[in-house]
């Protein structure tokens, strides 16, 4: 019998705690869906931590990334949720991706990239266009460093352009968003269980 799965959600809102945040809200909804599948969950609000610029595992004194990196490495599933600003993912999300770049040079005992056998999903919120572009950016970066992306492994909400309504202002997630979160999480859990039972082969 395989051991229980663990998950980490990383909210990349620009708003520090305790400010309300649409990215935090979607992260929480994804966490609830993961918990419903029996997955042990932990959450990080990235902006509350000092993640220094760079592409190293540890950028020195005052860098909070090494502790966050440990959480990434401990998780079977990682969900990154970002707001949309000027049609792009947030600068906080970009900082997280840049720090994950260090894992390209990290390998396990079998010579495989250290993030192999881990699954990643994406969430995007914003009252402007850009979700598909942002998901594509996240997918490419996460795949590049070794994560596996499940089928339909994203959820997003685009509010009406030029209006002020945010995801957090809604009475609840629209049915289409709720369905996409449910699918993304279910497929991520399924894939993570398969990879835990039989991971990718050693580099040869």
Automatic annotation (TrEMBL):
What's a Gene Ontology MF term here? oxidoreductase activity
Residues forming the NADPH-dependent FMN reductase-like domain are 18-152
Superkingdom of this entry's organism? Bacteria
* SUPFAM superfamilies attached to this UniProt entry: Flavoproteins
| Pfam annotation, one family | FMN_red
Segments crossing the lipid bilayer:
none
> Span of the secretion signal?
none
Q: What is this protein called?
A: Flavodoxin family protein
């Amino acid at each position: 019998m395989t051991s229980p799965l663990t998950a980490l959600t990383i909210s990349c809102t620009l708003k520090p705690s305790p400010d309300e945040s649409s990215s935090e809200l979607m992260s929480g909804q994804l966490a609830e869906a993961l918990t419903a599948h029996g997955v042990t969950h932990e959450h990080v609000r990235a902006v509350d931590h000092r993640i220094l610029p760079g592409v190293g595992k540890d950028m020195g004194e005052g860098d909070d990334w090494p502790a966050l990196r440990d959480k990434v490495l401990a998780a079977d599933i990682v969900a990154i949720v970002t707001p949309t600003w000027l049609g792009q993912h947030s600068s906080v999300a970009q900082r997280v991706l840049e720090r994950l770049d260090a894992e390209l040079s990290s390998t396990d005992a079998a010579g495989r990239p250290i993030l192999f056998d881990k699954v990643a999903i994406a969430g995007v919120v914003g009252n402007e266009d850009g979700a598909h572009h942002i998901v594509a950016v996240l997918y490419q970066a996460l795949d590049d460093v070794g994560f596996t992306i499940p089928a339909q492994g994203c959820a997003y909400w685009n509010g009406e352009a030029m209006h002020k309504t945010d995801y957090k202002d809604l009475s609840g997630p629209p049915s289409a968003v709720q369905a996409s979160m449910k699918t993304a999480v279910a497929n991520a859990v399924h894939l993570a269980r398969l990879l835990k039972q039989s991971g990718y082969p050693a580099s040869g």
